[in-house]
Design goal:
This protein is α/β, with parallel strands linked by helices. Helices cover 42% and strands 12% of the residues. The radius of gyration is 19 Å and the shape is globular.
Length: 305
């Protein structure tokens, strides 16, 4: 029920031994799904390269027990065909990803985001051909809204390829999938969901309850969570949520992950960590994914705008 995202904290600029320790701990703890993308780094591609080295050193004998996914859809290289969802980009990107990871295939290949300029028939046709070529066992999409998702399903059906999974951004504080009806669409079509950013880039933890630590992501790199995102109002909400978590015998982070897993339409949750202690804490989330109606009502009241 917990999957490990090897995101921007697994690039070449980070500590290789730390990355190796995290991946080995994850596998030893029963996590078999490792999620990547072509442009995770920095630099782009380096997270896949790091994983490929660790795979060769530690996990190659267990390939048939692992579920490895990667994606393409965001900027990867300068010049033409290095972004979005053209057939040429998706085909070339996956070939490069497989080479970096030292793999013959991935278990899931995702289109990372909708492309407003490429016909969806071209993008989905490329995904279908990738499956038929044996370079991916399954295909998925990320950040597609419900209407776009339904069209993608229909197109893939014409190729006799099933869309297996959707990876939306989803957390207690970012609930667009509920407003969009995405979860209902997934359930109706028998498609799984793997939310990413369940901790809202660290906001849904106890990290920022007493200010911004000097060693935090916000202090070092404000690309994904900036100081402006940590408002007094949001911190007050997290403080209130943290009291509920304490009553449940959970950390704030554990409750945030459990809150997603309580919904049967959520297949697993992607967590991204920078050290083993964080992963250990996240894994404990699955020990209690049940919420009473009073807890849900209290949480919703806190999160209400």
């Amino acid at each position: 029920m917990i999957s490990l995202g090897l995101w921007h904290n697994f690039g070449a600029e980070n500590n290789f031994n730390n990355a190796r320790e995290i991946i080995r701990y994850a596998f030893d703890s029963g996590i078999t799904h490792f999620d990547l993308a072509n442009n995770y780094g920095p630099p782009y591609g380096s997270a896949e390269s790091t994983f490929g080295e660790i795979m060769k050193m530690d996990l190659s004998a267990y390939r048939d027990e692992l579920f490895i996914s990667t994606k393409a859809g965001w900027d990867m290289w300068d010049g033409p065909y290095g972004n979005f969802g053209s057939r040429k980009y998706l085909m070339a990107s996956l070939d490069q990803s497989l080479k970096r990871m030292g793999l013959d295939y991935v278990d899931v290949f995702y289109h990372h985001r909708p492309d407003p300029n490429t016909p969806l028939e071209e993008t989905m046709g490329a995904l279908a051909d990738i499956v038929k070529q044996g370079k991916a066992l399954y295909v998925g999409v990320s950040q597609y809204k419900s209407q776009e998702l339904r069209r993608a399903i229909q197109i893939l059906d014409t190729h006799n390829v099933k869309l297996l999974i959707h990876q939306p951004r989803y957390s207690m504080m970012d609930r667009w999938v509920e407003e969009d009806g995405l979860l209902d669409t997934l359930e109706k079509n028998g498609i799984g969901s793997i939310p990413f950013s369940p901790l809202e880039q660290g906001l849904l933890t106890d990290k920022y309850l007493d200010g911004i630590p000097k060693d935090s992501r916000v202090a070092k790199d404000g690309r994904y969570l900036s100081k402006d995102d940590i408002t007094d109002a949001k911190v007050a909400k997290v403080q209130a949520l943290n009291e509920i978590a304490k009553d449940r015998g959970q950390s704030m982070a554990q409750m945030a992950v459990a809150w997603l897993l309580k919904d049967e339409r959520v297949t697993t949750v992607l967590v991204g960590v920078s050290r083993v202690s964080q992963l250990r804490d996240n894994i404990k989330s699955i020990e209690n994914v049940s919420f009473t109606s009073s807890e849900i009502n209290a949480i919703n009241a806190i999160l209400k705008d």
